[in-house]
Amino acid sequence: MAKKHVEISVEEKLRALYDLQIIDSRLDELRSTRGELPIEVEDLEIEIEGLEKRAEKYQAEIKEQNDEINTKNEIINHARTLIDKYKAQQDNVRNNKEFESLEKEIEFQDLEIQLSEKRINEFGAKIGHKNETLDELNAKIEELKNHLKFKKEELETLVAETQKEEEFLTAKSEEFQKNIDSRLLASYQRIRNSSVNGLAVVGLERGAPKGSFFTLPPQKQMEIAQRKKIIIDEHSGKILVDDDLVNEENEKMQEIIKF
């Protein structure tokens, strides 16, 4: 048998929305005690990750240049072996032409050695510079990691102080959301997300929506007090409720979310 849909009144919807607003506002208040700490922690993590990638790049380049030095050393060793071989062959030549041919080979290998040694010196200078930069990077990473550790501990302390209440309120928020139909809840969340202070449902203060300077006409105030339809303020875009409902729900919710 299909479950019978129970239609709730506009007043009940308004009360449910305002109750949810009370819970969510208290959650906002708890989270705001952490200030900029979560953002600072995230920024530090991103900065460290970026520096570590740069350090890895330098390490890869240093390895590549060390490999080049090893290759050049192999060329030098091979050239020296050939020079020794050609010099030994010069002792057994039959004519000047063979001697001069071997001499040219020796000169060529000498040039190979000189060029390789020049390249080794260049790579060595680059490696030295990169090692200096890498040392500076690693020192900066270490400094930032220590700072991050301190900030994380600070954040964890603040979270621990409010964690139990936050978990309780989060569960209550989810519980109260179930009493609001999905379309109305989506509107509430959209208004809340676009609001600087997270308020989507507000009462009236001296005839004006809380936080607004625009006084509502008496007729509009009467409509809000009748609770027959959901009224959204045309200036702030917030859902409006009357003072009596605000006072009644504040008193009720004080007992529910008392911590």
What general outline do the C-alpha atoms trace? rod-shaped
Number of helices: 6
User: Nearest-angstrom radius of gyration?
Assistant: 39 Å
Distance between the termini: 41 Å
Q: How does the helix and strand content classify structurally?
A: mainly alpha
The helix/strand series, from N terminus to C terminus, equals HHHHEEEHEEH
Q: What oligomeric state is this?
A: single chain
Major sheet? 3 strands, mixed
Task: Estimate the strand proportion.
Answer: under 5%
Percent of residues in helices: over 70%
Overall residue-averaged pLDDT value:
92
The spatial strand order of the largest sheet comes to 1-5-4
Q: Which ranges are low-confidence, i.e. pLDDT below 50, for 5 or more consecutive residues?
A: 1-5
Number of strands: 5
Descriptive report:
The protein is mainly alpha-helical. It has helices at 10-32, 37-90, 96-177, 182-194, 218-226, 243-256, and strands at 201-202, 204-205, 208-209, 231-232, 239-240. Strands 1-5-4 form a 3-stranded mixed beta sheet. The longest helix has 82 residues, at 96-177. The model is unreliable at 1-5 (pLDDT under 50).
List the helices and strands and how they pair.
Blueprint (H helix, E strand, L loop, with lengths): L9 H23 L4 H54 L5 H82 L4 H13 L6 E2 L1 E2 L2 E2 L8 H9 L4 E2 L6 E2 L2 H14 L3
Parallel strand pairs: 1-5
Antiparallel strand pairs: 2-3, 4-5
Helix pairs in contact: 1-3, 1-6, 2-3
